[in-house]
Amino acid sequence: xxxxxxxxxxxxxxxxxxxxxxxxxxxxxxxxxKATSLKRRVLSYFQxxxxxxxxxxxxxxxxxxxxxxxxxIEALILEANLxxxxxxxxxxxxxxxxxxx
Length: 101
Known about the structure:
The protein is α+β, with helices and mostly antiparallel strands. Helices cover about 35% and strands about 20% of the residues. It is built from three helices and four strands, in the order βββααβα. It has a four-stranded mixed beta sheet with strand order 1-4-2-3. It is globular. The model has no long low-confidence stretch (mean pLDDT about 90).
């Protein structure tokens, strides 16, 4: 999958802290992540070689949504809450409800 084939909220990724939600073709959230720069972090999935798990996840991405936050700390807290809410398949960490947050 190429980034140009993925639907992105507002057609752009801002260079600000926040949380991104990767969705499959059915609109189901398959991964939630945080970033100090949404643009740089999301682009990294499509530019550099990844392990097989990440390659498979990227091949399933149909849409990317994001929520901008003023600080990385706020993004970290939001990410943890969204992982617990959506329980995405590719978020291995934090699924056990035993994270420090």
